[in-house]
Every structure is written in C-alpha cells, then in structure tokens.
Write a structure and sequence with these properties.
With about 850 residues, the chain is mainly β. The protein has a single domain, classed as Beta Barrel (Maltoporin, Chain A), CATH 2.40.170. Helices cover about 10% and strands about 45% of the residues. The chain contains 11 helices and 45 strands. The strands form 10 sheets. It has a 22-stranded antiparallel barrel. The longest helix is centred in the N-terminal third of the chain and has 22 residues. The radius of gyration is 28 Å and the shape is globular.
Amino acid sequence: MSAIKHSHRSCSPTCAFGAFLALSMTMVNAAVAQESGVSSIEEIVVTASKRGETSAQDLAMSISAIRGETLEAMGAVEFTDFSRSVAGLDVLDVGPGQKRYLVRGLNLPGESTVGLYYDNITMTGTGAEAGDFGRNQADLDLFDVERVEVLRGPQGTQYGANSVSGVVRIITNKPDPGAFLGKVAASGAAKADGDADYSVKGMVNIPLSDNVAVRGVGYYSEIGGFIDNVQLGKDPSCYGVDPATTNPEIVLLPGPGCLDGTSNVRDINTHTRAGGRVSLQWTPSEQTRVLFQGYYQDIDSDGRNATHPLGAVNFIGTPPVVALRSDNGFFTTPATGERQSAALSHEPYEEEFWIAAFELEHDFEWASATIAASHMERDSITRLDSSKPARLHRSFQVVGLGPWSEAGVGPGTGPFRGAIISPFDRVSLMQDLESEVTNFEARLASQHDGRFNFLAGLFYQDNVRALDSEGRIADPSTGRDAAQTDIVAAFSPASLANFTAASADWQTDPFTITARQSENTTETLAAYGEVYFDLTENLEIMGGLRWFETDRSQDSAIITPFANQILIQFGSPAGMVGPEPNTPSTESDTLFKSQITYRPTDDHQIYFQVAEGYRAGGVNATIVSTIPPSYESDQTLNLELGAKTSWLDGRLFTNLSVYQVDWDNVQFEASYTQQFNALVNCTERSDGVRAKGFELEIQAQATENLDFGFNYTSIDAEWQVDSPDCLTAAGLADTFEPPGQLNGDSLIGVPDYSGSAYLHYNFDSAPLGAESGFVRFDLMYQGKVKVNDDDLDENLSNPSYVLANANAVLDYGKFSVGVFIRNIADEEAHLSLFQGLQSDNRVTPSNPRTIGANFTYNFGDYD
C-alpha cells in the first residue's frame, strides 16, 4: 500500500481555493452581464421555523438548505458527504455511527451542542462514556431524502436542550397518493488504496387509495477499508520487551525491529450499512394529515477510521510516581504511515437501531396544530484499544504502590516481570451502549393575515441511556480477547492469586479485568412560545421564552480491583468494588429570544437577534468521593446581525451573518489522576468561552444551464479563562488535573476558517444519445485546526487541506448512468484528531481517491 504523503504542491490550499473562487466569479460576472431571460434560483421551502412552509431565503435567520436532488448530484450518502459544504457546519468523525456534529465551533465534552432531527424525531447520541453523550450521533443513509436544513445559532426557545449552537434537520420524502413510483440505484467504486465500495438501494411509493399511500425505502452498502494495522498479525517473536529502551519497565509491543511498515492485517476499517424505512400517510381531508413512520438501520464495521501518523509522548502517574521512575514518567508511542494504524487491539463497531414515529397535522385556518410522538431504541457495541492505561498502571506497579506487588519487584529490586492489568500490555475496552428515547411535542402556530401571530408548544422527553463497559485482556497477535490458558500462563502466581482475591468476576470471566455498568435517566418537560408583531409593513419584532425542568439520575456499579493502587497512594480506603452513590439532580430555568427584522424590499432583509441555548446538566459517576456528584447546565448567549439579499431578479443570493456567542457556566472535562473523568462547570466568570465569526454565502444562476455557489466561514472560538482557575473556583484544584486550556486558547477541533464552492452545469443536449445530463464540481477547504489541549504533550494541529470531487450523469429518461471521482488529488487530509486517556493522537483520514460509476432506474408514473 502507498504511504506517501502528498506534501509537494505548486499551489497552497489558500492559493487553490482563491483561484477557484476567482475563476468562478469571473465566469458568473461574465454570464450575468451577457445573459437575459435566465430563470431565477429555485428557492427551497423549509419548515425550520415550526410555523409552516417558508422559503429558506425569506426566513429571517441564518439557515442553509440542501434539496435531495442536490445531495444526489453531490454523491452524498451520509452526513460527512455534505457537512463540509455548509457554512459553519463541521463534524468530528471517528467512524460510521461515531460522530459529533458542530456548528460555529462550539465543541466540548458533554451533551451535544447541535440538535439533530429526522423529520420531527429528536435524535440523541449514545455517548462513548458516561456523561459524554454528544458523541456517537446517529448517521442515517441519505437515500430518498427531500432536503437537509441547517440552522445556525442557538435555537433554545423552539428546539430546547442541546441546540446551543444550532440544529440539523433531515427531512425525508413522504408517501404520495397521487402516483405509483419506484427507483432502484446501484453503484460501485475502486479506491486508489484499499478495498472497493458498492451499494444497492431502492424506493417504492404505492397509493392505497385517493388519500392513503405507503412509501418504502431499503439500502445496503459496503464501504471498503483502506487503513492497515502495523502492530497486529506479526510473527510471535516480535512480541516482547523493546530492546531499544534501557528501562525494563517500558514495553513496546511489538519491538521496533518489527515495525517495518508492513502489515498482515489490511483494510481494517471496512464497514457495511443496511437499513430502510416505511411510512404511511393518510389525509382524511384537505385540512388533516396523519403520518406513521418506521426506521431501521444496522452498521457493522471491522475497525475504526483512525490512523497514528503523529505518534505520541505520554505522561503517566503523579509526582510521587515520577520521582521514582527512571524515565521521569514519560513513554512514547511510535508514529506510523498516513494510512496505517498502531492500535494494539481489534476495534470493531456494531450498531442497530429502530424508530417508530407518529405525526398529526391539522389546519384550523386561523392556526395549524402539530402533534408528534416517537420512540427510538439504539444499541451499539464498540471496541477501543485501551492499552495506554495498561501501561500507566504498570508504572504504578513498578513503584510498589499497587496492592499486588510481588516480592522482589519494585524500584531497585530487579526487573519488572508481572503486569497486573494485562500480562501482554494490551487491553481492549468493550462498551455496550443502549439508548431508549421517547419524545412528545404538541404545538400551535397561528396564521393570521393581521399584524400579530404566535407559536406555542409543549415538549416532553424520557431518555434512558445504559452503559456496560468492560476492559478485557487482548491477545498480542490478533488483538482479540486472549485465551484463558494464555492469560493464566502469563501471570505470575502471586499476581494471579491477588487478582482472584480482589475480584470475584475474575473467577467466572478471566477476560474481564475491570467492569462498569451505569443507567442514566433524563426526564425533560418544557413549554415554549414566541410572538411576532409587525410594527410597520417593513418592520417586525419577535420575542420568545422557553421554560424547562430536567430530572436526571444515574444508577451504576463498578468492579475495578486495580484502581485500589490509586486509593492507597492517596490514603483513601480501599473498596472500589460495588455500587456507586446515586445523586439525582433537578434543574429548571427559562430561556429567551428576541429579534427585530427590517425588510426594505421584498428581496432584502436585515435582522438582529439575541438568543439563548443550553445543554442539560447531569450526574457524574462518583467512582471516588472527590468527584462532584452532579454538574449544572451551561448556556450560550448569541448576538447576531444578519442580511439576506436577492439580486438580478432572483438570480443571485448573497447572505451574511456576523455573530458573537458567550458560553456561560461551561461544562468541561477534568481528570482525576488521569484515570477517571468527570464533567464540572467553570463558574470563574460568566463567559468561559467566547466564539466570534461570520458566515458568507453566495449562490448564482449564471445562465439557464450553469449555477454556482460558494461559502466562507471564519470562527474565533477561545477560552476566556484559565481552566485551573475553573477548578479552583469549584474547590477541586487539589484533586483534579486541569485539561490544559488557558485564556486565549482556541477550542479543539475548530478551524479558524473554512469554505466550499461548487459549479453545476446542465446539458440541454447531452452526449451519447442521452436526453439530458449534468456535470458538477465540489471543492471543500479547511484551515489549520487545533486538536490538542494537553500542556504536557506537544500542541498538535491538523494541517489545512483541500478536497475536490466531481460527478457527471447522463439521463436517458427512465434510467441514468453516472461516473464520479471523490478526492480527485488523493489528498491525505487529517479530518479530525482525537486523543485522551484511552488513545494516542488518532487521526481520522480522508478517504483515498475513489473512482466509481452509478446506475439508477425509475419506474412507475414518472413523466
């Protein structure tokens, strides 16, 4: 496989992006000046305001909308395929089903900062650990989607919790009783480096009567992997003490002599996605619509989309440990090639979920009423290489702080032999994450012709999320669960006896060395309302409030015998086995929103908005008494000035929004001796984080056949306080290690600037006998991104990158054929980076250059 990094370019990313925009603007200006009789841009109708259908361009808010036809033209099949083409929208992606969505750069652990909706269904993340529920957001296939709506800025009054920076709504096509319709689509593609992709998808719309129809969608896709593991699958002689180190306490498996860049475990990130949805719609009258929906999806991934091209230097232990270690408390993880992984254990991911939903709409003429209810169950099982903590605990064992130290083992008493957590220095963390969410919302939106209108609603949610986490000893060669006989043979007799005495689970499940179960229950009740008043024909004011009450509790138990060594070190009583205290929390508050909108003409509007959003508080796992039992909600206050304009008889849209967001009482993650994390609030000052920026969007219908658009986003999201001061204000400075954020530091994972552009050309007379066709080019640019706040490690950044895609389709009426190229330059971009206690500086890379073809056949009553 190729591990060549494309670093020699004749034009920098900024140069390439600027050249593309300059060329495109030249083409548009020339076309606009010469063409006459060109149709206006087809506006997209959205329902984001919850007040009925409105053109996205006419809605006085920062919103982007993408119609389903555009998603198909882009070749978008999942969230990441369109997210970088939307101003202010980003995603931290560690694999299918494992994403955190971001708007305007607000990114911290905890609940999501972005609300996600499929139709009227509220989606929530399952999290990757207790409390960090913003991770692992749902990611459905985009086949047969009507449109995507992205609302930027806090939407707290209408959408409630977890909309502190924005909302993403994915709207599916609904059943149509007026026609029998069907579609079959198939595609296949080859990568420059890795396995092939293929997919088969279908849709059928069946009228059952004049006012009843059913629509079914099904899909299956297999996405070939392109990442190779250079640690697993080696000859057994490779696995031993690293001969390059002078410290026998440090073990690198395999040794440097075996890290030659080759691998017997290839394309580890291959994954499949299968699912579908069924919807039935009944319209008993022109005023009433009833909709039933069912969703199902299954994801099965062989491994993570993660590489280790940066390596890592790790600090382990606390000052007492460092003083006793010959390496001063540091160990290293070697860097690999760009499309290579150094994970020491197998990391599959499985996910299954289903949704049942009901929706009722009725038009009273003076107002429209909507009732929406849904129930979702989502279950995911993931594996994460957790060998880094195993090496950490080996450090504690070496200095004699653990309860299982053997005679003759310790500083100055001879070489270290036994490994308490894993005799192979390899641990796989298995996490079974289950989520059950029930939602109910009822709202009434007036539709008077007069100067006054209103929106009022009630919302209820019951969210139960369960976590079953187990650390298991991994086999050094396969990375899978080690055999019992191998584990027993590797442990020394004294260590094995102490381990058996410390944990009853060891006797029945020798693979499990630590386990934790938790069930987190959140119940939310809210009422909201907004009023709108036209002061004049051109000037509107609005105001809104949302009251909410959230009850949260957590039941959990832990079996962590090796953690006793930490308690002994700090003089706390042992006894880390058993249930944790349950400290329920209740919180209520009121949010507000106000806005003034001025429309000097039908084509121009300016608005100024003040709006709040919030993330719910919660309950920590009180593994040790110094961890706070709960944390409060945090809030954002958004000041935004926006302008939305239409020119040249609707052939040119230019939209601009400038904003400042203050994040108050911000939740952030701190660690207890780098082993147990908890969420705490920064109460040091009211604006712990501040984000400032702007979003510019331009779209033009240059000719009858050519349309063009680009957007540019600038974000400056920074800490306004030193995180150690946050811990001091909370009374936790002596027990928690600060995460390293300092006043003026940027939030991690947030680019200072990004942008995208596209050109789309439709053929009136297509080649090869086709009735019509099109070609489309998409370009995405992202600036450098800070990805690490660890002040004990190197301060890492993802470099800037440009990704380019092309798609061409010929339409023959009932069927069409197309070809596409994704990542034309085969750019090895670092899309995101994640690191922490469990993992070292892991990069999510862009897919290699992918060239493919697709085929679509339409049947039924198409024109």
